[in-house]
Amino acid sequence: MILQSWRVGSLRSLWLGAFIGFLVTVVLGWVLPIIGHLIGGLVAGLIAGGGMGRGALAGFLAGIFGGIVVTIVAVIGGLAVGGIMGGVFGGLVGGVVGLLIGIVVFLLSLFGAIVAAIGGLVGGAIAK
Questions:
Q1: Which of the residues 7, 87, 114, 118 has an alpha carbon 20 to 30 A from that of 29?
Q2: At what angle do helices 11-29 and 33-48 cross, to 10 degrees?
Q3: Roughly what angle, to the nearest 10 degrees, separates helices 11-29 and 87-127?
Q4: Which H helix or E strand runs over 42?
Q5: What does the alpha-carbon distance between residue 31 and residue 4 come to, in Å, rounded to a whole number?
Q6: What is the pLDDT of residues 31-84, one digit of tens each?
Q7: Which residues in 88-106 are b (16+ Cβ under 10 Å) and which e?
Q8: How far apart are CA 125 and CA 110, in angstroms?
Q9: What pLDDT, in 10s, does the model give residues 115-126?
């Protein structure tokens, strides 16, 4: 009965696939930067099932989650550096630098998300 709620093709399986694909990407991304994203997307697509489009969406979500987390860490890091510099000027410079670094990191993470989407496309095609 519990397993029926996680059946392939449901919205829950899409988010579950995206989350597990994200975890695989985090684990393998440090050792194998591009291949890790591809394998994470493949796993996300296999779990999400439902065809190539659904697999590609799960892979893209798995890839973009990491980019969002790294972007938040970069912005907070820039703000922390600005706080260490002290004063209003330090906070302003830290905020602007953190925001710029966050934007650059997010744009670079879109590449990883596209690679993960390609892996998800293949995984969704296999699962169908």
A1: 7
A2: 160
A3: 120
A4: helix 33-48
A5: 36
A6: 888 899 999 999 999 999 888 999 999 999 999 998 888 888 888 888 888 878
A7: eeeeeebbebbeebbeebb
A8: 22
A9: 999 999 999 999
